[in-house]
What does this fold into?
Amino acid sequence: MTYVLGVDGGGSKTFAMIVNEEGRILGFGSDDGSNHQMVGLPQAVEAIKRAAHAAMDSAHVGPEELAIGSCCLAGADRPDEVVLLREAILGAFDSSHRVVVRNDMQAALRAGTRKHWGVVVACGSGFNAAGRAPNGQEWAFPARGWMTGDRYSGRAMAKEMIQLSMRAYDGRGSPTVLTELVLDALDQPSPDELMLALCDQRIGQRHLLPLVPLLFEAAMQGDQVSQDLITRVGEELGISAAAVIKRLGLQALPVEVVLAGSIFRGKGPLLIDTVQQVIHRTAPAATLVRLTFEPVVGAVLLGLEWVGIEADDAIYSALRATMPEILHTGHVGYLPD
It folds into this structure.
């Protein structure tokens, strides 16, 4: 029996999964975020280790039985980071089995397309965009936030929501229902009290990302300020995808653009429609795909391919049949028939 471990490690969570050569999911585990750039290498490796061992325990599979550990990790951006993370993971498992480390964008891309090439844009707690051409050439943004020119992530959107609320309150901006929605969500009686809570750090980063669904709620209510922000985000995400498409020379091809991350689960069509319009200016034949399952599925598919097992219809069917409910995102467009 062949057992493959897939790990998807992001900024807010780490998922691990065990599959056999038939594509049946035998075990699953989860833990906190494991982006070493955010939490440090020791904490990142511990999160990966806990998630992986939870998956192996539920599958009754030991590290020595794994054919490969396919780890797709946020923060594995440079070659030296890939080497650093691989050595740290091998040390944590105290095992000589094979471990392959890739950037987490590769898991999302592989999860969303069966072509083995395409483009992926991820927007959740962080942001990134990457792609692979039919000839195997790959490219990705460094994704180091403002230092590398990135404008929008989920946390950046939440901060701008607060800014827009404050500007509406003090008269510098247009009125918006975001003001009351943000105050209620953060349990603050007034914008002045919200300012004090932020200054005193009683409201931290972990409180910000849950604000973002409110932006889409407000937009669905007709709030112009919220609609304008969503449009700006959509334009930036579309520009990022188009930049990857041009970098890899995919403008004339029917490229699939995978949309990954919690931001793409927001209510209403405005974000997706804006992204699509911008991408189509560069690649008119491009198709947008939203994941219905978490990218850890892509990590195990990459692991299967690494040991010589191509994902066919039978493997996709087995994945669907054994998928834990926690891995469903509620979107249509993934694991195509």
